[in-house]
Write a structure and sequence with these properties.
By secondary structure, the chain is α+β, with helices and mostly antiparallel strands. The chain has 18 helices and 21 strands. Strand 19 and strand 20 form a beta hairpin. It comes from Salisediminibacterium beveridgei.
C-alpha cells in the first residue's frame, strides 16, 4: 500500500515504517508495552494481548478489565484470517419483564448495574493466547502490571477526557454503588491532570490474578465472587453463574469485495456489517477527488442507508430476522444505490430479503497481524467499579431495546448490538493489514472513510487518518470536522444536508492503521493525530 508516500493534510506525524514489528495505539506507553513483548520473541498476538492489558491501565477513560473485545487475526503460516467475538451476553436474570417490575419500560439505563452484561475481555485474552500465542500468558502482563503498580503520567488528551468524565459523574453518579469509581479514578477527590501520576494497586493485583490463572480467576475464582457479591449488594443482575458460563466464540469474518480489495469485519452482533453495506453500495462508483461535496454526499447517503438497516436489523446473528448474506448481496446494494439522488434524504430501513473504546493494531516480522478492539462504553462504562480490584464494568446492555418486537430486544443470555469493530483488508488472498477507528457509532463510518481514503484516493496510512472526517447523526443531520474545506460545507448545504460543524475533533473517533507490503514485508503505519496516538517499532 505505498501508492502515495506523501501526506496532503496538515498532520502531527508522518507515516511510520518498520520491518521487524509494529504496534499502533492511542497511548504511547501501551504501544511500548506491546513492543517490549515483540522484542522478547512474542508474536503479533502476544503483543496485542500485552498492549490491550496496558490500555486498561493507561486509557481507563475508554476501556477496562470489565470490557468486551473483538479481534481479527491474520496468521501468516495459515494464510487465513480468524475472528474472535469476546462480547458477553445479558445475565440470565435480566429481562424486559424484570425491568418492568422496577418501572423501567422506555430505555435501558446507561449507568449502574442494570446495563452490565458479562465482560468478555479477560477470556478473549486467554483464548487468543491459547490458540496463537508464543510466550507464556503470564509474561504478557508484566508491562501493564508495572504501570498499574508504579503509576504512569497522564497524557494530554487522556487527561482531558478523564476530567470531563469526573465532572459529569460527580453530578450524576451520587448513589452508594458508584463510590468505588471515585475512590479509584478520583484519588484525593479530583481527576489527575496531564503529567500527574495515577496508579491502582487493586488493578495491578487483578491483572496478576488473571495472568496467573489464564483468566479463570475472573470467571470462576475470587474475582468472580467479588463481582457477584457487589452485584447482589446493589441489586444487580450479573452473577457468578453468568460469569462461569461464558466463553468467547471463534467466528468466520464477513467481507465485501471493494475495488480489488476484500474488506473484513466481525459478523453480527457487531456493527461491522454497516461499514460493509455502505462500501457495497458505492463499489461501482468512481470518485475523481476526495475533497468534493459530491464525494462527501454519496458517502453520507450510503452510510445513512446502511446504518438505518443496521440499527433496525443487527443483533446477535441467531436472533436476526434478516440474513447477513442478503444484506450484503449485490442485488440489495444495487437497489439501495438506486435510491440515492443528488439531494439529502430521510433514510428508511430497506428489505434485504426481497433482493461503540480502544483500538490497537499489531504486526510482527513473520507476517502475523492483529486487529483488536476492546471497550467499556460511553467512556468509563457503567460507572461500577468492583471495590479494591480496579475492575470497571462495561454498560453494553444500554443498547438493548425494551420493545419485545425489535430484533435487538433484551433477552436473557442474548448478546446485544455491539458498536466495537476491528477491521482488516486483504488483496489477492494476502494480508494488507489491520485498521480501525474507535468511537461508538462513528466506527463503521470511520471504517468506510479509511477504506475509501486508501483504495479510492491512494492515501498512505497517516494521510488516511489525518484527512477531515464526517459523521452522520440522524435524518439529514451530518456533523463535519472543522477542517473540512468551506466549499464542501456549502455544497452539502445546497444538497439539503443539515450541517453541523463540531466544536472539537473528539467526536470523530481515533484510529490506527498498519499496512504490510507483501513483497518486502515492510510495515507502514499511521496513528491518530486527534489523540495521544503512538506507533512503536523496531
Amino acid at each position: 500500500m505505498n501508492d502515495a508516500q506523501y501526506n496532503p493534510y496538515p498532520a502531527k506525524r508522518q507515516v511510520t515504517y518498520s520491518k521487524n514489528g509494529m504496534v499502533a495505539t492511542s497511548q504511547p506507553l501501551a504501544s511500548e508495552g506491546g513492543l517490549e513483548i515483540l522484542k522478547k520473541g512474542g508474536n503479533a498476538v502476544d503483543a496485542a494481548i500485552a498492549t490491550a492489558a496496558c490500555l486498561t491501565v493507561t486509557e481507563p477513560t475508554s476501556n477496562g478489565i470489565g470490557s468486551d473485545a473483538f479481534a481479527l487475526v491474520w496468521i501468516k503460516n495459515d494464510e487465513k484470517l480468524y475472528g474472535l467475538n469476546g462480547s458477553g451476553p445479558a445475565p440470565n436474570a435480566l429481562s424486559i419483564d424484570a425491568l418492568k417490575e422496577k418501572g423501567i419500560t422506555e430505555e435501558m439505563p446507561a449507568f449502574g448495574f442494570t446495563p452490565v452484561t458479562v465482560p468478555g475481555t479477560p477470556a478473549a485474552w486467554a483464548e487468543l493466547s491459547r490458540r496463537f500465542g508464543k510466550l507464556p500468558f503470564e509474561e504478557l502482563f508484566e508491562p501493564a502490571i508495572r504501570h498499574a503498580r508504579e503509576g504512569f503520567p497522564l497524557s494530554p488528551v487522556l487527561a482531558y477526557f478523564w476530567g470531563n468524565a469526573a465532572n459529569r459523574f460527580s453530578k450524576t453518579l451520587t448513589s452508594a454503588e458508584f463510590k468505588p469509581w471515585f475512590d479509584t479514578f478520583m484519588p484525593g477527590g479530583k481527576a489527575p491532570a496531564a503529567g500527574e501520576l495515577w496508579k491502582s494497586e487493586g488493578h495491578a493485583t487483578t491483572l496478576e490474578k488473571i495472568a496467573q490463572t489464564k483468566a479463570e480467576a475472573f470467571y470462576k475464582g475470587d474475582l468472580a465472587e467479588k463481582i457477584d457479591a457487589y452485584s447482589k449488594t446493589h441489586g444487580g443482575y450479573i452473577t457468578k453463574e453468568d460469569l462461569a458460563a461464558f466463553t468467547p466464540e471463534w467466528v468466520d469474518p464477513i467481507s465485501t469485495h471493494y475495488k480489488g480489495y476484500d474488506v473484513w469485519e466481525i459478523p453480527p452482533n457487531g456493527q461491522g456489517l454497516v461499514a460493509l453495506m455502505a462500501l457495497n453500495t458505492l463499489k461501482n462508483d468512481t470518485f475523481g477527488s476526495r475533497d468534493t461535496d459530491q464525494t462527501f454526499h454519496y458517502q453520507i447517503e450510503a452510510m445513512k442507508q446502511a446504518f438505518t438497516d443496521g440499527l433496525h436489523y443487527i443483533t446477535e446473528e441467531k436472533h436476526m430476522k434478516q440474513k447477513v448474506e442478503d444484506m450484503l448481496s449485490d442485488a440489495y446494494a444495487i437497489e439501495r444505490r438506486s435510491e440515492i439522488t443528488n439531494m439529502a434524504m430521510e433514510p428508511q430501513p430497506g428489505d434485504p430479503s426481497s433482493s461503540g473504546t480502544v483500538y490497537l493494531a499489531t504486526a510482527d516480522g513473520e507476517g502475523n497481524m492483529v486487529s483488536f478492539i476492546q471497550s467499556n462504553y460511553m467512556g468509563f462504562g457503567s460507572g461500577i467499579v468492583i471495590p479494591d480490584t480496579g475492575i470497571a464494568l462495561q454498560n453494553r446492555g444500554h443498547n438493548f431495546s425494551l420493545n419485545p418486537d425489535h430484533d435487538n430486544a433484551l433477552v436473557p443470555g442474548k448478546r446485544t448490538f455491539h458498536t466495537i469493530i476491528p477491521g482488516f483488508m486483504t488483496k489477492d488472498h494476502q494480508a494488507v493489514g489491520p485498521f480501525g477507528v474507535m468511537g461508538g457509532f462513528m466506527q463503521p463510518q470511520g471504517h468506510m472513510q479509511m477504506v475509501m481514503n486508501t483504495v479510492d484516493f491512494k492515501l498512505n496510512p497517516q494521510a488516511a487518518l489525518d484527512a477531515p472526517r464526517w459523521q452522520w447523526i440522524k435524518g439529514k443531520t451530518v456533523q463535519l470536522e472543522h477542517t473540512v474545506p468551506e466549499h464542501i460545507v456549502r455544497g452539502l448545504l445546497r444538497r439539503g444536508h443539515q450541517v453541523e460543524i463540531a466544536p472539537h475533533d473528539g467526536a470523530f473517533g481515533r484510529g490506527q492503521i498498519i499496512w504490510r507490503d507483501p513483497e518486502t514485508g515492510v510495515l507502514a503505519g499511521g496513528t491518530e493525530s486527534r489523540t495521544d496516538g503512538a506507533i512503536a517499532v523496531y
